[in-house]
Recover the amino acids of this structure.
């Protein structure tokens, strides 16, 4: 059996042995419990064919033109506008929070530039109650309905509250920025260690399968995290235990400074799926409809058939504007220069300007969708201008509010370690309180809520 | 989340049955599966009854979706268990030997222990229990005999119980164990015998050794030993230990043997 790539060459996944000339008697077939296969009489190693690997599914070309009308999900105009507004609002929030980190207002930030299509396209394809386990670049998933942020979707104030670690943060200010969580919107709190969420997502899917036949679990991670043992564990458990989970891998070409050529030698992450018995697909992550279609179908079948799916979304990390934007003023263009892993990174150390220019100019999920919308007269310059102004205003208002909020009370250092506070922690808390009564002047207590 | 390095329930009123340690574990699992429909038990070789016979009969009784094997992967077992618990269901994960818990160290320490705290109590995996036998195979050498409790003893966010396990698979301690479900308080040490000269604290297999030592000390040296089974490593019962140690210390200023 072989898998033909588009055009040149053939990717062999299995060895074709000598076919029997007549029907084999049962004694001639291998009888091993570990694998069901034919015998082969020719010594031949399976070639991991990387050059003509698994093809990249797309719906639109780079100018936002649908290639096969049957693949256009034909989403209603309002939903497409929601996709666009979510991606651009995310972009706006990213710019402002990124700049705020450079100015020392928040400690750390991670942007989503260039990868908005993966988050938003997949989020739109899920049911509202599907449980999401993310890595850290999935802020877009929690923004289901940006046009009506106040009554659906995660409020901007709470994104900001978490990044500022202020008293309004539902996470009580304990984690680094971008470690969001929201039980009401079925988004499990992010943690810093990579790939740990993968086997957890599988366990959750197993429990959900027993409890509710209509929900799926979606698990996001990057191509770097996919190297962790937890990823291997998760894939294998999901397949053997028949869990309704969709694994969504964002392959953006880099894990901090490590390019994919140093991360793996096989054909990306999608090629690993069949090895575990997972139905797998590779999609163009910058094509929001390809992402939508793949996620929608994977999710539907995962629930209907109780089996896991693996989606590898190919994309790229970019950043708007080659120069830093002036502080908190102006939106700048969408698309631009080098995207860093985070505010702790300067990727000019390991990526060439030419490399990034291509992605920025030729292929960006936001501009691609805008072309699609413009073609249908669903969007124009006037709307773009108005939306930019409005979205920027919303973000800035939330931002300024978050700046003014105090930090959580110091007593919250001790709660939630256990469900009930044990005596020794209560004693430590009391010690701190007594200490602050005496030496409080040496601490910036005025910044903290009482 | 609770890590149970074996456990044994003590005598209380009601109908009892003679059981060894592993039978009492099976009984406890049976009770948990009976009264909590979300509860599932899983790990390596759990389906046929387990290498220590702790899950004998449970799959037939409760079904293959509730008592099942996982692939051979401890980080997966614990990660998977965390995920179940995050949804609110009860997860009872088995690690085949405590010596093999180390691949799961990251999931235990970085994830399970911190789940509630880091999320501001939005999420937790409190309904996860991890069971791991230790010290049970006499011929097991380096990799079937370890006592890894100290690695976890300083990890806030987990609870670690360790009660009287046995010396070997064959020579199992038989006790009268109640059949019906009941609860015992965690985090309480048990004073097994009172004494006035020396306080000895032990957990697990060493409790049996220390009881013998106490008898020998009394007989050969005329020394009166207080014997305490710590039972819980984290949190440990500082009140009982310190009170008892103080009594013997003030009496004769003798050293503390642990």
């Amino acid at each position: 059996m072989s898998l033909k790539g588009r055009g040149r060459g053939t990717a062999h996944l299995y060895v074709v042995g000598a076919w029997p000339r007549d029907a084999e008697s049962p004694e001639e077939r291998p009888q091993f419990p570990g694998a069901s296969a034919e015998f082969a009489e020719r010594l031949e190693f399976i070639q991991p064919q990387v050059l003509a690997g698994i093809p990249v599914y797309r719906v639109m070309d780079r100018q936002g033109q649908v290639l096969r009308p049957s693949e256009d999900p034909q989403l209603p105009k309002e939903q497409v506008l929601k996709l666009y507004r979510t991606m651009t609002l995310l972009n706006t929030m990213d710019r402002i929070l990124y700049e705020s980190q450079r100015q020392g207002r928040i400690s750390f930030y991670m942007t989503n530039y260039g990868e908005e299509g993966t988050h938003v396209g997949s989020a739109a394809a899920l049911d509202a109650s599907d449980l999401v386990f993310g890595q850290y670049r999935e802020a877009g998933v929690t923004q289901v309905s940006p046009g009506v942020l106040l009554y659906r979707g995660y409020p901007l104030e709470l994104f900001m509250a978490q990044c500022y670690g202020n008293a309004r943060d539902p996470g009580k200010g304990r984690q680094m920025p971008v470690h969001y969580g929201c039980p009401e919107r079925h988004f499990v709190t992010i943690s810093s260690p990579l790939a740990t969420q993968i086997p957890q997502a599988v366990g959750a899917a197993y429990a959900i399968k027993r409890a509710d036949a209509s929900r799926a679990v979606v698990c996001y991670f990057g191509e770097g995290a996919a190297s962790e043992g937890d990823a291997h564990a998760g894939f294998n458990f999901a397949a053997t235990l028949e869990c309704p989970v969709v694994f969504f891998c964002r392959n953006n070409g880099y894990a901090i400074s490590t390019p994919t050529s140093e991360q793996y030698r096989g054909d990306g992450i999608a090629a690993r799926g069949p090895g575990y018995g997972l139905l797998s697909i590779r999609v163009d992550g910058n094509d929001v409809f390809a992402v939508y279609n793949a996620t929608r179908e994977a999710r539907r079948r995962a629930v209907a058939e109780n089996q896991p799916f693996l989606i590898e979304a190919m994309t790229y990390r970019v950043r708007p504007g080659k120069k830093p934007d002036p502080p908190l003023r102006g939106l700048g263009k969408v698309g631009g220069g080098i995207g860093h892993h985070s505010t702790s990174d300067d990727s000019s150390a390991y990526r060439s300007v030419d490399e990034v220019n291509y992605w920025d100019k030729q292929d960006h999920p936001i501009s691609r969708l805008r072309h699609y919308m413009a073609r249908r007269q669903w969007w124009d310059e006037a709307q773009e201008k108005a939306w930019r102004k409005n979205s920027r205003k919303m973000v800035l208002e939330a931002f300024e509010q978050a700046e003014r909020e105090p930090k959580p009370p110091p007593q919250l250092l001790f709660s939630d370690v256990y469900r009930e506070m044990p005596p020794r922690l209560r004693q430590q808390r009391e010690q701190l309180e007594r200490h602050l009564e005496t030496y409080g002047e040496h601490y910036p207590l005025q910044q903290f809520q009482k | 989340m609770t890590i149970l390095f074996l456990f044994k329930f003590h005598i209380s009123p009601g109908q009892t049955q003679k059981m060894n340690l592993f039978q009492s574990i099976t009984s406890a699992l049976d009770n948990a599966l009976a009264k909590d429909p979300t509860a599932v038990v899983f790990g390596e070789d759990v389906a046929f009854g387990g290498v220590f016979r702790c899950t004998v009969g449970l799959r037939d009784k409760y079904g293959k979706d509730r008592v099942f094997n996982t692939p051979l992967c401890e980080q997966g077992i614990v990660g998977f268990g965390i995920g179940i618990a995050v949804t609110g269901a009860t997860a009872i994960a088995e690690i085949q030997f405590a010596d093999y818990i180390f691949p799961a160290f990251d999931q235990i320490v970085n994830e399970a222990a911190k789940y509630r705290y880091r999320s501001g109590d939005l999420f937790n995996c409190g309904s996860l229990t991890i069971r791991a036998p230790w010290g049970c195979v006499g011929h097991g050498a380096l990799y079937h005999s370890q006592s890894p409790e100290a690695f976890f003893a300083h990890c806030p966010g987990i609870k670690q119980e360790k009660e009287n396990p046995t010396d070997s698979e064959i020579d199992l301690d038989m006790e009268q164990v109640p059949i019906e479900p009941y609860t015992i308080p965690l985090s309480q040490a048990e004073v097994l015998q009172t004494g006035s000269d020396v306080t000895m604290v032990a957990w697990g297999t060493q409790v049996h050794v220390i009881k013998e030592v106490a008898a020998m000390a009394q007989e050969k040296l005329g020394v009166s030993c207080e014997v305490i089974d710590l039972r819980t490593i984290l949190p440990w019962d500082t009140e009982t230990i310190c009170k008892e140690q103080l009594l013997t210390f003030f009496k004769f200023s003798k050293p503390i043997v642990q």
